[in-house]
Automatic annotation (TrEMBL), chain A:
It is a multi-pass membrane protein. Residues 125-339 form the MacB-like periplasmic core domain. The chain crosses the membrane at residues 123-145, 384-405, 439-460, 480-504, 525-546, 778-799, 827-846, 858-881. Residues 389-502, 778-890 form the ABC3 transporter permease C-terminal domain. The keyword Transmembrane applies. This is FtsX-like permease family protein. The keyword Ribosomal protein does not apply.
From TrEMBL, chain B:
InterPro entries: Tscrpt_reg_PadR_N, WH-like_DNA-bd_sf, WH_DNA-bd_sf. Residues 20-88 form the Transcription regulator PadR N-terminal domain. This is PadR family transcriptional regulator. SUPFAM superfamilies: Winged helix' DNA-binding domain (SSF46785). It comes from Spirosoma arboris.
Length: 898, 112
């Protein structure tokens, strides 16, 4: 179309005044032969006219309609009166259609398809149900996966935004990888590198109470941030000016929901709220920050004013975000900043330490980042990938059902194909016939699947813990994949049977000599093998996940978590707090249902953020190691039943224990002591100098995904952020809680009483695995169900086909069991092959999954036995139902039926 | 066909071709009908009708001049052939014959 490009050069009209380009292209491509030029011209003129009469929208619409009608293969002249053009200039034109599908034939195809469906109602039902379940499962998973992958991609230029990761090496070994880094990095990057468009720091504050007049709320999701955060993240202001909202100190902006919580309908701007005791001026309100982000931003306070928070190259508690200019070369920039810290902290290298800075792409943080001090419990990229594979498996299994049944029924259709061919049907027409036929069940299945998805969406989002309101979301993103699955399914599942059926030689087809048709059979067999192999892998996977979960929950944690009630300490302690803490515990111990009490800054199940570098004082060549601190009182070891390996516990009576320390085994090894008793009496320097008085056995501070931390226990009986109460029993719990609460409120007036049970709290760390187990279990059983559905239909069909054979065998003296065996044997062989294929694959996949856990089981061998026996059993039941019926049939009946 | 029959739509289009004379091409005909008649006939319909008329031998066509507003593309200009003229005249004749058969008082009653 040389003409077309030529025109566009002349075309000086604004772009949106032109007809839709795709329609023009369609016209140029498919217009009736010889008429393209004039029709294009006419249409252009008409378009100008329509713009005048019905407006631009209407014009475009009419243009598209006109094009579609002009190129429609059925739109030619239908008079058929005089077929040749007498005039020169009108090129002669046969009423030829572009497609091989003739409308009259389509009607016939649909009619035949419908009759076939009615003839084989049960097959049709099984086909459609299987497809519908498969599609629904696939759509649900697809939604979940899409949501998980959508994290943080709503920011404009999300692919240019990075978080700085800090990797710290001590003695040449990787000590930790942290999501937070030094506050001095952000200004340095901005100053030194021209690629950097903007930087911002976020400081995660601890939970605190926010007050406005007499409204108090405990807030968990707030940060102190540079004002430049608004230039990096998409935060839409409803009130206030985002250019200056956080430039002054002691200012704050709130999300819409948070603002409503404190101010109801008042205008929050210019009001003052208190964080702890410090007042902050409200300078803005923004639209609620989307849920699909790794940050939860309910309130954003202005950045810290301490000098350390500006210039420190050692305090790694700050999330640093960098936005690069679009032209920046990311790889080059990565290389430039890796060793940035060495330039500013030259001393570091001398001590054998090294810090590296890495870039984490913002959209990857949710699924693929697993560092210390993450801002949220991140998603798991691996399980999202596994779920996608499961979704695909289920869909393919459902499609295979269709292919299997369609090819199995090839015999039934052979005569029809033969007749059609004799009557002059071309192969292409037959292919299109069978494709059209596969539209029917697929269409019905899609409709059913959409209904299933709608109905089960709330349960599914419960199961996956997805916070999104699915219904709102369904509108946008469901139709396209649904359509894709429908189209792909129709083509994929329809094409093979269509090719097979249309390839019959009419003469053999009509003679009925197709029984030796083996190629279809072997493919069918391999498809069944695939279905069952996939099902077995899913089954083994589910069993392994459950087993690992059980293992983690039953593992000896190194401390006792039973019947421990945890009460939070007050948020803003004052100088009299120590005395009050003691008084509170004394009161509790008077009541007999509290057996032991202890206080600490951390409890098991928490990530410890209080980290120091420590080194041995007795060695000149000693190097720094990061230790994780917990401050405890003298009852902690006893209350938690943590064993002392050497030395002694803290003792209040000594009065000097504040400068002493307990280590755990891991820390002892890390510092290079030969044995626990070797460490006793030695000194370590962590800013202050502490003497080691005892060594405790390792206990699991965090879930079994993580290993043991090197821990340093300090003695601070007054630093009670948590009270751990050992209850004698859990009877009369409400009553007892009430009395504990009464004591708490009497001794610490004005503080909210908050409590939870330690085992619940600890097990929360396994939530992701639990969810994964439930979801994969659900879909594994669905996959097996669909596979069995297909097997059932196939067995039914084959039993029917062999009715006569069975009759003859019976007449000749075959016993019923031998007949059942004959019919079942073929299928069993396939299942056993499937087990053979699935076993190594499942073993490999599950060992890969288990490696992520610091403490894990071996892949349980019995899972393979259970899955294998289960698969055989299910297949046997499914198949033998039909086999038995066929074998029991009276030969008189089966042989008479002709 | 023994005797070419002229449908109502065909008649309208053929008359418009005759009325437009040198300027009778598909787009112009469509616009003309659109402006003069209360009902709008779509462009593809007119196109098909013209083809049908050509098949019946009522119009002939030749390629005509291109203008910039149509992107430099040629027009197909239609003229009414003698057969077309005859068909139109016959059609008109037939109609007036039928009109004449309606009694005058009734026509008066209708206000026609």
């Amino acid at each position: 179309m040389g003409r077309l490009t030529n025109d566009q050069k002349h075309d000086t009209r604004p772009r949106n005044d032109r007809p839709p380009r795709w329609a023009t292209w369609l016209m140029s491509r498919f217009s009736p032969s010889g008429l393209e030029d004039e029709l294009q011209g006419d249409l252009l003129e008409m378009f100008a006219y329509w713009i005048k009469t019905v407006g631009l929208r209407g014009a475009r619409w009419r243009y598209i309609l006109a094009v579609l009608r002009l190129i429609c293969p059925f739109s030619g002249s239908t008079t058929g009166q005089i077929l040749t053009y007498s005039q020169p200039g009108f090129p002669s034109r046969e009423p030829q259609t572009i497609f091989i599908i003739k409308p009259a034939m389509v009607r016939n195809y649909l009619k035949v398809a419908w009759r076939n469906l009615l003839k084989n109602k049960s097959f049709f039902l099984i086909n459609t149900l299987g497809l519908a379940f498969g599609m629904a499962a696939c759509l649900l998973i697809l939604q979940y996966v899409t949501f998980e992958r959508s994290y943080d991609s709503f920011h404009p230029d999300a692919d240019h935004i990075f978080r700085i990761e800090l990797d710290s090496y001590q003695n040449g070994k990787l000590a930790f990888r942290s999501a937070t880094s030094y506050p001095a990095i952000a200004p340095t990057l901005k100053k030194e590198f021209s690629e950097v468009a903007e930087t911002a720091r976020l400081f995660a504050a601890r939970t605190n109470v926010v007050t406005y007049q007499n409204i108090h709320h405990r807030e968990d999701n707030f940060y102190f941030a540079d004002n430049s955060i608004f230039n990096i993240f998409k935060i839409d202001f409803l009130r206030g000016n985002q250019a200056t909202a956080l430039t002054d100190k002691n200012t704050v902006v709130l999300s819409e929901t948070t603002a409503r919580k404190y101010f109801a309908r008042e205008n929050p701007l210019g009001k003052t709220i208190k964080l702890g005791r410090t007042p902050y001026l409200v300078k803005g309100v923004y639209k609620d920050y989307p849920k699909n982000s790794h940050l939860e931003l309910d309130l954003i306070f202005s950045y810290l004013t301490e000098p350390d928070a500006q210039t420190s190259w050692g305090w790694y508690a700050f999330y640093t975000y960098v936005k690069l200019k679009p032209i920046a070369r990311v790889e080059q920039f990565r290389a430039k900043i890796v060793n940035l810290v060495q330039k500013y902290v030259p001393n570091e290298a001398k001590n054998g330490n090294r810090s590296e800075l890495l870039l984490q792409p913002l959209p990857d943080i949710h699924l693929f980042s697993n560092l210390n001090q993450e801002a949220e419990a991140n998603g798991n990229g691996q399980s999202v990938a596994v779920l996608s594979v499961i979704a695909l498996f289920i869909l393919v299994i459902a499609w295979i059902n269709y292919i299997n049944l369609a090819t199995a029924r090839a015999m039934d259709r052979a005569k029809e194909v033969g007749i059609r061919k004799v009557a002059g049907a071309e192969r292409a027409q037959l292919i299109s016939q069978f494709l059209i036929e596969s539209v029917l069940p697929n269409l019905l299945a899609v409709a059913l699947a959409l209904i299933i998805v709608q109905a089960s969406a709330p349960y599914f989002s419960d199961l996956t813990g997805n916070p999104l309101s699915l219904n709102q979301w369904l509108q946008h993103d469901l139709w396209l994949p649904a359509f894709g699955i429908f189209l792909g399914g129709t083509l994929l599942s329809g094409l093979y049977p269509a090719l097979l059926l249309s390839g019959f030689q009419p003469i053999t087809a009509l003679k009925g000599k197709l029984s030796h048709l083996t190629s279809g059979l072997s493919l069918r067999q391999s498809l069944i093998v695939f279905q069952f192999a996939a099902s077995i892998i899913l089954m083994v996977g589910t069993l392994t996940v459950y087993r690992q979960l059980r293992f983690m929950q039953e593992q000896d944690l190194g401390f006792s978590s039973a019947q421990k009630l945890i009460v939070r300490g007050v948020l803003a302690p004052d100088s009299t707090y120590g005395a009050k803490v003691d008084a509170f515990q004394q009161e509790l111990l008077k009541a007999r249902f509290v057996e032991k009490t202890t206080t600490s800054t951390h409890i098991p199940g928490m990530e410890i953020l209080w980290a120091n570098s420590a080194r041995r004082v007795d060695r000149a060549d000693a190097v720094d190691n990061t230790l994780y601190n917990t401050a405890i009182d003298d009852h902690f070891l006893e209350a938690y039943a943590i064993r002392l390996l050497a030395g002694r516990n803290f003792n209040r009576a000594f009065g000097t224990d504040r400068t002493n320390a307990l280590l755990n085994e891991t820390a002892v090894k890390l510092l290079g002591f030969s044995s626990p008793s070797d460490a006793l009496g030695k000194f370590i320097g962590t800013g202050d100098t502490l003497q080691i008085v005892g060594v405790v056995k390792d206990f699991h501070q965090q879930g079994l995904q993580k290993g043991h931390w090197p821990m340093l226990l300090r003695f601070r009986p007054d630093a009670a952020q948590f009270f751990s109460l050992q209850l004698a029993s859990t009877r009369n719990l409400t009553q007892r809680l009430a009395s504990i609460q009464a004591q708490y409120e009497r001794i610490f007036p004005g503080n909210p009483f908050e409590y939870f049970f330690l085992d619940d709290f600890f097990n929360k760390q396994y939530k992701a695995e639990q969810r994964f187990g439930r979801v994969s279990g659900l879909f594994a059983s669905l996959a097996i169900f669909i596979a069995c559905l297909g097997l059932f239909a196939l067995a039914t069909f084959i039993a029917k086909q062999r009715t006569k054979e069975m009759g003859i065998r019976k007449v000749l003296g075959a016993s019923v069991p031998s007949l059942i065996g004959l019919l079942t044997k073929d299928f069993l062989k396939l299942i056993i092959i499937a087990i053979g294929i699935a076993t190594p694959l499942a073993w490999y996949a599950m060992s890969r999954w288990l490696v992520d856990f610091a403490y894990h089981i071996a892949v349980p061998w019995w899972a393979f036995v259970v899955a294998g026996v289960g698969a055989i059993g299910l297949a046997l039941v499914t198949v033998s139902l039909q086999s038995i019926r066929a074998a029991l049939l009276n030969p008189v009946k089966s042989l008479r039926s002709e | 066909m023994k005797r070419a029959f002229l449908g109502e739509l065909e008649e309208v289009v053929l008359l418009t071709v005759a009325a437009l004379q040198e300027q009778a091409y598909c787009a112009a005909i469509t616009q003309n009908i659109d402006q003069q008649m209360a009902r709008s006939i779509s462009f593809p319909t007119v196109h098909t009708t013209l083809q049908r008329l050509a098949e019946k031998g009522f119009v002939s066509s030749q390629m005509g001049g291109a203008t910039t507003e149509r992107g430099g593309r040629q027009k197909r200009l239609f003229t009414v052939t003698t057969a077309g003229q005859r068909a139109l005249i016959e059609c008109r004749h037939l109609r007036s014959q039928l009109w004449d058969q309606i009694p005058t008082p009734i026509l008066l009653l209708w206000g026609a």
